[in-house]
Amino acid sequence: MTTQDVSSPRSLLATVTARVAGFEPYLYALLRIIFAVVLFTHGLPKVLRTAHGSMADPMAASINLIQNVMGLPFAAQLAFLVMLLETAGALMLATGLGTRLVALLIAIQMVAISYALGPTWPWIDRGIEFPVLMGFLALYIVARGGGVYSLDARLGTRLR
């Protein structure tokens, strides 16, 4: 490669792109783990029944949302499943175990949350930006699977 080749913007972009592409498997694993950590921070207060943000009791708030806003039966049981998904599911997602199934369930949960919160988009006052973003990220993980650095890959899971 000549000096002229390296200094051209196209050549420089190709070089940078090739080097960054090598980090992709690591960055995807990190993305999956950070996504799981964020989800876990919403599940753990439900398990511990401790305050989270403006909610004094997140589990009671989930039951209320499911029962009174969404009008669904078995609100306590559904809230328990949400808590389970946000804790055990988040741990599974972080390790890459059952990645596609867990991510699909999270995507469904985010659609339900977006519906329950209504079509509001303000960055403050409980808008739906967060669950919409989380939902689409979960869909990406469904399509992508666990990746190279996951228990799914290590175990040879066909659904990785």
UniProtKB/TrEMBL annotation:
The record's subcellular locations are:
Cell membrane
Name the UniProt key words of this record, in alphabetical order. Cell membrane, Membrane, Transmembrane, Transmembrane helix
Entry keyword Transmembrane: yes
Q: What is its main location?
A: membrane
What membrane topology does this protein have? Multi-pass membrane protein
**Which residue ranges does UniProt annotate as crossing the membrane?**
26-45, 65-85, 97-118, 130-151
Regarding protein family, the annotation reads:
Belongs to the DoxX family.
Q: What is this protein called?
A: DoxX family protein
Q: From which organism does this entry originate?
A: Pseudomonas beijingensis
Instruction: State the organism's lineage.
Output: Bacteria, Pseudomonadati, Pseudomonadota, Gammaproteobacteria, Pseudomonadales
